[in-house]
Amino acid sequence: MFVTPDDHPGTASVPDDVRSSRQRAGAVEIDSGQLLQGRREVLIRHGGECYRLRHTRNDKLILTK
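Structure (tokenized):
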């Protein structure tokens, strides 16, 4: 489920200093396609609340509570 820069061509344009700062911060990059698994929306449970992540027709991601 985790994506490396080689797996996702869009990350190739990320400067090395930005990429290394993300790694130091412990951030993990996950491809939205793998998260959505072909669906237009998924529900994410966090802290007892349910959030909706939608992929719009304009190719944007919207997270709502």
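The chain has two domains: 1-30, 38-65. The mean pLDDT is 81.
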